[in-house]
Amino acid sequence: MLEVRRLKKRYGDKIALDDVSLSVGEGQMFGFVGANGAGKTTTMRIIMGVLSGDGGEVEWRGKPVGFETRRRFGYMPEERGLYAKMRVAEQITYFGQLGGMAPAAARSAADALIERLGLTERRDDDVDSLSLGNQQRVQLAVALIHDPELLVLDEPFSGLDPIAVDALAEVLAERTAKGVPVVFSSHQLDLVERLCDSVGIIKAGTMIAGGTVGDLRARESRKRLRIVVSGADPGWADRLPGTVVAKSAQDGAGRDEVVLMPSDDQEALRVAAGAGRVEHFGWQEPSLAEIFREVVA
């Protein structure tokens, strides 16, 4: 539904984006990850029309994105775009009307979001009196109020406690279940791994990896074995072929756990079996954080 092709952006001599492309289908959640300054926010701002690119295309349902199309999108900037002295309910309702809603419909939708996001007790408070986490909830409500066809969220989980993270994740899952694509950036790679259907990794303005987490794991060059052996002598792991990444001390049950990047997995099995009783021998799936470190290195 959302197609971004070969985006380019320069600031003087600095290349901010260099042929960045991504696509997000109906009901998909896309996680955009990269270091600070990698180009995530610039890409999202171009999608939303906050910035203009120097080249490339942004299409929605096969057609170029323009002003009227973007009015149907929901956007949550990394830096909060709220009116500090407006009350919570008043603010959410106001943004609903900016999105084209009738006043009564905006008030009703605001009431529902305030309850859904746990802001009922703060509905009549000024935004600047709220904690950062509650301000983040208000910002999300502003992005959701007009029932957008696409959500573009820049660091939506920043500053949230675990309960608020779960609440936000549930709200986003509800939207994707209705077919709404969601694009969000985050430095919390465990959340991206848990929530997203697909991931894009950007470095210095260039998209260097993308696909499902499973796809990225399949491309991981440093495959690791997890081996658990009981009853082995203390030096047995030194005989394993390859590089030992991690090794636990023997616990009370006399078990050793080793994570190995093997040069020969069959030889590793032979050594483990010769050292003691093999309780576990299998490939260890890398986390998204490990994949990220691998591809940006």
Automatic annotation (TrEMBL):
PROSITE patterns on file: ABC_TRANSPORTER_1, ABC_TRANSPORTER_2
Main location class: membrane
Keyword Transport annotated: yes
Compartments in which it is found: Cell membrane
GO biological process: response to antibiotic
Annotated protein name in UniProt: ABC-2 type transport system ATP-binding protein
Segments traversing the membrane: none
InterPro entries: AAA+_ATPase, ABC_transporter-like_ATP-bd, ABC_transporter-like_CS, ABC_transporter_ATP-binding, DrrA1/2-like_C, P-loop_NTPase
Residue span, ABC transporter domain: 2-229
GO CC annotations on file: plasma membrane
Family stated for the protein in its record: Belongs to the ABC transporter superfamily.
Entry keywords, A to Z: Antibiotic resistance, ATP-binding, Nucleotide-binding, Transport
Coiled coil: none
